[in-house]
Design brief:
Radius of gyration: 19 Å
Number of helices: 4
Helix content: over 70%
Mean pLDDT: 93
Oligomer: single chain
Number of strands: 0
Structural class: mainly alpha
Strand content: under 5%
Length: 148
């Protein structure tokens, strides 16, 4: 069975790559923070009783970790929604990446509340991608029911 992708689906692929670049950049920032705050591998987080800069490092690490936790949902919604609405999904994907950048940089200040200044808008982008994906499901279900 051949799958015909919409011609604009290339923009969806570029939006996915945008997030991959952001993820690599965040990983590099965590690596730099490990050296700066003396948190050796394999420790995932610094312990406050052992490191005076634990909160600062942990905020940087947590900002990246949270982005990794959300990545599968983002990619799933981006790709599925992009099959029905490639332009809208690509735009929402880029907006999501921008919001995740601000989420990470806000968190990296060492004040966890700063992650939400502009980072909170990543949820709106995800919501938009959910609508695109539900539209795909609706279209597929309606198309199948007509064919039968």
């Amino acid at each position: 069975m051949a799958v015909d992708l919409p011609p604009a689906f290339g923009f969806v692929a570029l939006a996915a790559v945008t997030y991959c670049v952001l993820d690599v950049w965040m990983g590099i920032q965590v690596g730099k923070a490990r050296k700066r705050y003396n948190v050796p591998y394999p420790k995932l987080y610094a312990i406050e009783s052992e490191n005076k800069d634990a909160n600062k490092f942990n905020c940087i690490q947590r900002g990246h970790q949270n982005s990794l936790e959300k990545m599968p949902v983002f990619f799933l919604l981006l790709i599925l929604g992009g099959l029905q609405h490639p332009i809208a999904s690509a735009i929402l994907g880029v907006l999501y990446s921008l919001a995740r950048y601000f989420y990470f940089t806000g968190y990296s200040t060492g004040v966890p509340e700063n992650r939400l200044t502009y980072g909170k808008y990543n949820f709106l982008a995800l919501l938009g991608l959910m609508f695109c994906t539900v539209s795909l499901a609706w279209h597929l279900l309606f198309q199948v029911s007509n064919a039968e």
